[in-house]
Amino acid sequence: MKPGVFRGLVGVVCAASAAACGETLAGEGRPGDPEANLAALENDAAVQRTYVGVSQDVHTGARPVVGTFDLLGGADVDVEIAAKDGAPLAFELWQIHVDHSATLAMTVDDRSGFALQQLHADEDSSWLLRFPPGAPADVVVDLQCDASTHGCTPFGQPGDACAGGWACDEGLTCQVPGETCVAP
């Protein structure tokens, strides 16, 4: 079975399981449903930029927390997320398409407080990690580029070179001398 087909089947099974149990996933909707979009997923959430190639602390709380990042088509990324105090971990991973519609890529509900998943970007698109409101602990998010034929991200990540017109990702600036992308 092709990897893309397998991932699609996993998404369908996960979504069907949640629906069968009476649970509702944030931003979930039928294909083409206007509620399954970037604005609905970010509504009432604390939004922050998430970067590839570095570990980041994400502070969870009473509101949903959303971390956004961009990937180039063909990129394979390891998604490692751990609750700092080992508390149960729950989050959703959404693909945001050019028209701002959203597709649920995976849901994770793990009592161990640790999740390691692999993500394959089938097209250039944005991605969104969504942590539910009232998550019991702060988490560490680590996104690592595993493989790509032409890079994983369209913009420079922290520590990447920004010389020669290579733009730094949202929230980063090009520090001179050294010409590397850094947080201001």
Do you know the CATH topology of the largest domain?
Jelly Rolls
Helix fraction, binned, reads 10-25%
Side by side, the strands of the main sheet go: 1-3-8-5-6
Query: What value does the average pLDDT take?
Result: 80
- How many helices? 2
Strand content: 35-45%
Count the strands?
A: 11
**Low-pLDDT stretches:** 1-34
Distance from first to last alpha carbon: 45 Å
N-to-C series of helices and strands: HHEEEEEEEEEEE
How many individual domains? 2
Q: Describe the main β-sheet briefly.
A: 5 strands, mixed
**In CATH terms, what is the architecture of the largest domain?**
Sandwich
User: Helix- and strand-based class?
Assistant: mainly beta
What top-tier CATH class of the largest domain fits best? Mainly Beta
Q: What's this model, at a glance?
A:
By secondary structure, the protein is mainly beta. The chain has helices spanning 3-20, 38-42; strands at 46-49, 55-58, 65-71, 76-83, 89-96, 102-110, 114-120, 125-131, 139-147, 173-175, 180-182.
Q: Which labels suit this protein?
A:
184 residues, mainly beta, Jelly Rolls, 2 domains, 5-stranded mixed sheet, 4-stranded antiparallel sheet, 2 helices, globular, disordered N terminus
Molecular structure report:
This protein has helices spanning about 5-20, 40, and strands spanning about 45-50, 55-60, 65-70, 75-85, 90-95, 100-110, 115-120, 125-130, 140-145, 175, 180. The protein is mostly beta strands and about 180 residues long. The protein has two domains: about 5-155, Jelly Rolls; about 155-184, no CATH class. The strands form three sheets. It has a five-stranded mixed sheet. Strands 2-9-4-7 form a four-stranded antiparallel sheet, with no helix packed on it. Strands 10-11 form a two-stranded antiparallel ribbon. Strand 10 (about 175) and strand 11 (about 180) form a beta hairpin. The longest helix is centred in the first third of the chain and has 18 residues, at about 5-20. It is globular. Mean pLDDT is about 80; it is low at about 1-35.
